[in-house]
Specification:
The protein is mostly helical. The chain contains 6 helices and 2 strands. It folds into 2 domains: 61 residues, Helicase, Ruva Protein, domain 3, CATH 1.10.8.50; 30 residues, no CATH class. Helix 2 packs across helix 3.
Length: 123
């Protein structure tokens, strides 16, 4: 496995699809990285030479993409800032509800968690 930015990318996939395993890199960005590093997008990771892996690492740092830990920490800091300021979005994050205006009467189970019945019902 090739190790790029602290992530072991899969060996048996083509380079752009393997690069997507790095947090912060999607397919379009991965294709741009291949062009920048002069790596054929159709080659598989196991067939890459060490110079090409180094070129991919350098391309990520040269193009200034924020990836992995740095990106995760920045996202966490943004959410913390919203909570501290007390914005509506921060309150939704704090309560574990959908943030972007989705309906919550039905659906929203991913954010709200397992359904809980309130009250004991009739005796």
């Amino acid at each position: 496995m090739a190790r790029i930015v602290g992530v072991d990318i899969p060996r048996n996939k083509k380079v752009p699809y393997s690069l997507r395993y790095i947090h912060g890199i999607g397919l379009t960005t991965a294709q741009k990285l291949c062009v920048e590093a002069k790596v054929d997008p159709n080659t598989r990771v196991q067939d890459l030479k060490e110079e090409q892996v180094v070129a991919l690492r350098d391309a990520i740092s040269d193009l200034g993409f924020m990836v992995e830990g740095e990106l995760r920490s920045q996202t966490a800091m943004n959410i913390k800032r919203l909570k501290d300021v007390g914005t509506y979005r921060g309150l939704r994050h704090r309560r574990g509800l959908p943030v972007n205006g989705q309906r919550t009467k039905t659906n929203a189970r991913t954010r709200k968690g397992k359904k809980r019945t309130i009250g004991l019902g009739k005796k």
